[in-house]
Amino acid sequence: MGDLTEIRIEGRGGQGNVVAAYMLARAAFEDARFAQAYPSFGPERRGAPVSAFVRISDEPIKQRCQISDPLYVIIQDPSLLHVPNICAGIRADGGILINASTEVAPARFPGIAHVTSIPATAMALRVLSEPIPNVALLAAFLTLTELIPLAAYERVLAHRFHGQDLKSNLQLVREASSYVARSSWKEASHAAAN
User: Fold this and answer.
1) Which uninterrupted H or E stretch holds 166?
2) Within a 10 A sphere around the Cβ of 77, how many other Cβ atoms?
3) What pairs with residue 73 in β-bridges?
4) Are 172 and 130 a contacting pair, CB within 8 Å?
5) Looking at residue 170, what DSSP letter applies?
6) Which residues 6+ apart lie within 8 Å of 166 measured at CB?
7) CA–CA dist 11, 13 (Å, integer)
8) What's the start-to-end Cα distance of the chain, in Å?
9) Domains in the chain, start-ordered, CATH in brackets?
10) What pLDDT, in 10s, does the model give residues 9-51?
11) What is the mean pLDDT of residues 67-96?
């Protein structure tokens, strides 16, 4: 399967990590693609590390195992940067998107093509009055990679939210997508498809 893109999302319980994986997979469905999303829990409690996995493809996906060598890693909590091997297995041509209020030096991840930081929690607090970074992180991720059109992601949000909540989340999407350089990770997405 040559067009398979694998993503791992690292976060803590209560940050919307698993919801982020499901929203990303649903956005792929909205874009007429195939997707899988599933979590991996340690201790099931608020604040405990949680990994979620997403596969996206133009063909049916037959794999059912955890993702050990993702093209992309999204880190929802900067405190996880201190966890050994948080980015283990990431492909050298891939990217790491980090929720951090200050820029994380790419030198911290030698050999990884793309490292980008975005203050997703601060954005969410300002726009939503909630410290949940997942909506902003996914908007930034989709802007960087163009893996799925933002319009498909916005349709997913329209299924999940209504009224003012929807308007606020769409505003957050616009802010987060304008924070990063459009298509700057796109070559990694295209390389994964070949």
Assistant:
1) helix 163-179
2) 22
3) 8, 96
4) no
5) H
6) 157, 158
7) 7
8) 9
9) 5-192 (3.40.920.10)
10) 999 888 888 999 999 999 999 999 999 999 886 555 667 788 9
11) 92
Q: Where are the alpha helices (DSSP H) in 2-161?
A: 17-30, 120-128, 134-145, 150-160
What tokens does 27 get?
Answer: 């956005």
The stretch 86-103 carries a mean pLDDT of 93
User: What number is the average pLDDT over the span 84-95?
Assistant: 91
Share of the chain above pLDDT 90, in %: 70
**For tokens 């992180």, what's the residue?**
137
**In terms of pLDDT, which residue wins out, 194 or 171?**
171
Burial 53-67 (b: 16+ CB within 10 A, else e): bbbbbeeeeeeeeeb
> 14: closest CA among 130, 116, 118?
130
Tokens for 162?
């209504």
Beta bridge partner(s), residue 16: none
**CA proximity to 134, closest of 155, 148, 145, 118:** 118
Alpha-carbon span 21 to 12, nearest angstrom:
13
Beta bridge partners of 72: 7, 95
Rg of the Cα trace of the chain?
A: 15
Give 115-129 pLDDT, tens digit per residue. Answer: 999 999 999 999 999
- pLDDT band at residue 1, thresholds of 50, 70 and 90? very low
- Amino acid at position 113, single letter: A
